[in-house]
Specification:
By secondary structure, this protein is mainly β. It is built from one helix and 19 strands. Strand 4 and strand 5 form a beta hairpin.
């Protein structure tokens, strides 16, 4: 699809939404955008830098145009996104690479929702998912592309109780007549999940539970024999309990997840993730945070926010950790200078989950993250940060001192807002 045709379709959808606002009562239509460039200095980011490598500087950019429609009976959202690295495409050539790579301009979200009686709603289309502390499902806002899923979602809301039932089934467009064909193992073929949550506002306790079943197609090819197709099912289950009360200075958040079934490649799973986080509000502008994450070797964090856990340099995440598992002890401090400036510093100590054979030391290294956020105005925020990872001998690193820095500008203008 050429960019001109794509832009015409986006404009048509917006015009139709504006037209609908004149014929249906109790509704709201708005059009907003996000412009987010980010420059990064990478000198050992995500893995220790090798002697043959040099530090790198790159500029990323994400632009989104969002159209929202809300009424008593129907809600809808359209989000068009352009995600690129500066210089990735020829400014005088085609915006879509002829090599078959994914285009930089595409639909991030496109869904419609029917609001049914008694707190029930049905939503279908491409949509971002956020649950709990975003370990399993997240829009992954730090990512330059974000996360979204093509699925049908049935929701139920009554007072402080929420229930979501989602289902997705994916196909390859080039094979529309049969289910027996090669499908990438890196992405699920089908997925079903149930999420339940309840807030007890008087006590400050929040409870949630989730179960996710994913099916991954596996292809087995043997010479001179028909290709065999099978499905590996991975089950992830668990829940969270949180405590937060305005009259008490300590917040508590505990997480426990298990994983069973088979991995996308057919390996049997018996994995888990345990986490505990404490926030202590010493003074109104100052918060001290401490916690621990324990992740077994074969646990996969599904579609969560990897950058939000286990250090900003992304050495370790719920989907990338040592064969012995990972333990992350961390301590952080946040100070809100005023309504515009916020300072954040954190320290992580990483260790193997269990002893490695013939190795007495379990330490993987330490990480320090420093960040500052400045709210330039109502629609613009500037963030910057610097991190260093001090690698241990277990990483077999050429450089024990690795660093990463970034500066990011986020502007979110609202172009149009109509209420009736």
């Amino acid at each position: 699809m050429k960019n001109s045709n794509f832009s015409k379709q986006v404009s048509l959808i917006i015009v139709l939404a504006l037209y609908a606002s004149n014929i249906t009562a109790q509704q709201e239509v708005n059009l907003d955008a996000e412009y987010r460039p980010r420059v990064e200095y990478r000198d050992g980011y995500s893995a220790p830098r090798k002697e043959s490598q040099s530090p790198d500087v790159l500029m990323l950019q994400r632009v989104r145009l969002n159209a929202n429609y809300r009424s008593a009976l129907i809600n809808a959202r359209l989000s068009v996104q352009d995600s690129r690295v500066f210089g990735e495409t020829n400014t005088k050539g085609d915006a879509v690479a002829k090599t078959g790579d994914a285009p930089s301009l595409f639909l991030y979200e496109a869904w419609a929702e029917l609001v049914l009686p008694k707190g029930i709603a049905f939503r279908i289309g491409r949509q971002a998912l956020n649950y709990d502390d975003q370990r399993l499902f997240s829009c992954s806002n730090w990512s330059n592309t974000g996360n979204a899923h093509d699925l049908a979602l049935l929701t139920y809301r009554i007072k402080d109780f929420k229930a979501d039932l989602g289902y997705a089934y994916n196909n390859n467009q080039s094979n529309p007549l049969t289910s027996d064909y090669d499908y990438p193992q890196t992405f699920y073929r089908n997925m079903t999940y149930l999420h339940l949550a309840n807030q007890f506002k008087a006590s400050g306790i929040n409870l949630s539970a989730i179960a996710v079943c994913e099916g991954f197609q596996q292809t087995k090819k043997i010479a001179d024999q028909p290709t065999e197709y099978s499905t590996n099912y991975r089950l992830t289950y668990g829940g969270n309990i949180g405590f937060k009360h305005t009259d008490f200075p300590l917040d508590v958040y505990a997480t426990a997840y298990g994983q069973a079934g088979k991995s996308p490649k057919g390996n049997h799973l018996n994995a888990y993730l345990l986490a505990l986080k404490l926030n202590y509000h010493i003074l109104k502008p100052f918060t001290l945070t401490g916690g621990i994450d324990y992740i077994s070797s074969d646990f996969c964090g599904l579609y969560g926010s990897n950058h939000g856990f286990n250090g900003a340099m992304d050495y370790w995440s719920a989907s990338s950790h040592p064969n012995e598992g990972l333990i992350d002890f961390y301590l952080a401090a946040q100070y809100k200078v005023n309504d515009k400036v916020t300072l954040l510093g954190s320290y992580h100590s990483f260790r193997l989950g269990k002893q490695r054979e013939n190795v007495s030391n379990r330490g993987l290294g330490n990480e320090i993250d420093l960040d500052v956020s400045y709210k330039f105005c109502k629609i613009a925020t500037i963030k910057a940060g610097w991190s260093t990872y001090l690698a241990s001998p277990l990483l077999d690193a050429s450089h024990t001192f690795n660093q990463w820095a970034y500066a990011m500008l986020t502007i979110t203008p609202q172009f149009f807002n109509y209420k009736k």
